[in-house]
Amino acid sequence: MSFASGYNAGxxxxxxxxxxxxxxxxxxxxxxxxxxxxxxxxxxxxINDIKIKDTKNQIARQQKVRIQExxxxxxxxxxxxxxxxxxxxxxxxxxxxxADVYAEHAPQVIDPDVRKTFQNIHAxxxxxxxxxxxxxxxxxxxxxxxxxxxxxxxxDARGLSADPSTPxxxxxxxxxxxxxxxxxxxxxxxxxxxxxxxxxxxxxLSPEKMAVAEQALQKLNSERxxxxxxxxxxxxxxxxxxxxxxxxxxxxxxxLEASFGGLPMDQNQREGLADAMMGMDLLEDSQRALExxxxxxxxxxxxxxxxIMRFAQQDISVADFEAAVTRLIPKLARGTFGEVGVLTDxxxxxxxxxxxxxxxxxxxxELVMAHTQALISKNLRKTLTLLSSQGYDVSSPTFRAQAEKxxxxxxxxxxxxxxxxxYFKTDLETGAINAGDYVAIYDDKQKKVIxxxxxPLETYKPxxx
Length: 465
Fold this sequence. Notes:
The chain has a domain at about 265-460. It is about 70% helix and about 5% strand. It is built from 16 helices and three strands. It starts with a helix and ends in a 12-residue tail after the last strand.
């Protein structure tokens, strides 16, 4: 083959390779566009499904309201019919007997429209009695008196007493009636006082607390009805989330235990948690390996010392340390920083800066590791809290044990005593840290990191203030 022929063949091959490369890139771009379009379509389908579910739920709620209104109307009409039949049998001159009948049936007429009719019927009956002047007001007073007597009997059964002739006594009676009304709703629905957010004292309720309790019961009833329309899986998640919410002020291990019976986590959630927990364990391994190095560290010094130990065949501690760091980097990248895919050399070098190295002084290494530990702990707390509050089951002994360990991990790291003076009090006042948490402080004089437990705010206030 001549030089010209070889050259032309080479040029043709190069052109063909370039064309193939362009074609592959075009195919990859088209595949990416197709994948994005498919994801958008899937998201739109999910949105449409949610809208359909919301519409169905709204229709179901409206139907339930209409059914309840129909039942109330029918019950009210039955009460009015009974009232009329009973009144017909009364002596026209027996005002007290009529007062008793009126007091008995009036609370049973709950439909607003039927109640108007009932009041009109009541006015006509009252007008038929002798000495009509003052009769209607007397009937109302008598009904109220009988209601007070009944309430006093109920209070007496609970060891309570009140004088209805005084304003204080009437307020006590009314407070009990408000309590009794809400308590009956709670007993009939199976909810608890804790769920209303109100704790009555002495079997009494103020108007304000009664309003809060009734609003809470309405919300609970609405949530219960909506829950009935959901799938078993959705109900499982909601039940677990409700249990966790009931103990949301308790420490993290208790909240995790309350999530028992919730939805199982998917593979990504499990792997993310596992990587983060493994990252914490490997960080501790790296810290121990660093402590056992037996060689000085620092700029230039660490490298020279490690090489001398290698030549002397005493490099076990150095190898242990480097191996610990090597194992830690992928778990730290994926479990804490959310990296996906294969880590490049650039990625690995970037993440190595977040852990100890032979090129840094001992104090600098401790500070870097404290920062990384605080970051991993924060991510773990946040992830476990979020999953439990969303109704996922994170109640396993492994997760609860990890939550116990997190108690002693620093929530904040202060790079100097001066930083403590500038930020610590503000962090404590704003809730960035709380009593019982731990913080890491770099002591400038000792050139080391000190971990301390945070005390209540008043402990740090100057005496006499």
